[in-house]
């Protein structure tokens, strides 16, 4: 008699146990899938930022090379001009000394014959520009733009990541619960520009798969 009385309750408990075990199995599967998605996102993020750093390093090296090349050309032209001016100064000093000697001669014929013709020197002034401050300003603007871009994108990604939760859909006991979750999903779609949203209904269960194609193609979180 007692067994007959307790049997319905036992069956109810066992059914709940089976449901909970099934739920644990599904949650474990979802957690594993979630972890794989997280690891993929971390790997892709590390790869992206590593490549970004390399790209910045290449740009830095290229800019420094251009500045150094310009420096070499300007210094080479200036040094060449200085050597030419030194030669002209030496020549003029020699001629000045000759004129000083000639000024003391008493031989008028020798004076007329030795009177030098003034040399003609080309006047080629070289101006070296030191206005490199614009480079610093340009780099500062580039740094600001890059920081703002990274900040905005990371904030957007952060907003998206907050919507990734592992929730069994069968916990939606009411239509209102379902609509509230749908509202959250729609917000996620608008934030992430998600291109894939698939709803499938099976026997006694429902699954949802979200795929953020613009962030990481092929990576999605499946909830059952």
UniProtKB/TrEMBL annotation:
Highest taxon of the lineage: Eukaryota
Where, if anywhere, are coiled coils annotated?
17-102
What UniProt keywords are attached to this protein's entry?
Answer: Coiled coil, Metal-binding, Zinc, Zinc-finger
* Xref: InterPro entries: E3_ubiq-ligase_TRIM/RNF, TRIM8/14/16/25/29/45/65_CC
Asked if the record carries the keyword Transcription, the reply is no
Tell me, what's a Pfam family for it? TRIM_CC
PANTHER family with a match to the protein in the record = B-BOX DOMAIN CONTAINING, E3 UBIQUITIN_ISG15 LIGASE TRIM25-RELATED
Protein name in UniProt:
TRIM8/14/16/25/29/45/65 coiled-coil region domain-containing protein
Source taxonomy: Eukaryota, Metazoa, Chordata, Craniata, Vertebrata
